[in-house]
Amino acid sequence: DHSDDESESSKPCCDECKCTKSEPPQCQCVDTRLESCHSACKLCLCALSFPAKCRCVDTTDFCYKPCKSGGGDED
């Protein structure tokens, strides 16, 4: 039973995070995911497209770690 695989894909992570220079910083992830947001997202907005493109619009004072785990494309 590999139920852990599903939770892995919904773990909070962000490849493109934008933060203000204020103290504390205000950060927002601008990643787009298909059909859902990560598990820790409180406010998820989805476009009315098929498949739906969703973005978490939470504001935090940190960035989640990157979702991409060394794809091997970069030299």
Question: Quick recap of the structure?
Answer:
With 75 residues, the protein is mainly beta.
Describe the protein in words:
This is Double-headed proteinase inhibitor, CLTI-I. The chain is mainly beta and 75 residues long. The chain is built from one helix and five strands. The strands form two sheets. Strands 3-5-4 form a three-stranded antiparallel beta sheet, with no helix packed on it. Strands 1-2 form a two-stranded antiparallel ribbon. A hairpin with a 7-residue loop joins β1 and β2 (27-29). The radius of gyration is 14 Å and the shape is globular.
Q: What is the helical fraction, as a range of percent?
A: under 10%
- Secondary-structure element order, N to C: HEEEEE
Helices and strands: which structural class? mainly beta
What's the name of the CATH homologous superfamily of the domain at 7-56?
Cysteine Protease (Bromelain) Inhibitor, subunit H
Please count the helical segments: 1
Instruction: Using the coordinates above, name the CATH class of the domain at 7-56.
Output: Mainly Beta
Strand order of the largest sheet: 3-5-4
Quote the CATH topology of the domain at 7-56.
Answer: Cysteine Protease (Bromelain) Inhibitor, subunit H
Beta-strand residue percentage? 15-25%
Average pLDDT reading:
84
List how many beta strands DSSP finds. Answer: 5
What is the second-level CATH architecture of the domain at 7-56? Ribbon
| Coarse shape | globular
* Low-pLDDT residue spans: 1-7
Largest beta-sheet details: 3 strands, antiparallel
* Oligomeric state of the chains present here: single chain
The whole-angstrom Rg is: 14 Å
- N-to-C terminal Cα separation, in Å? 36 Å
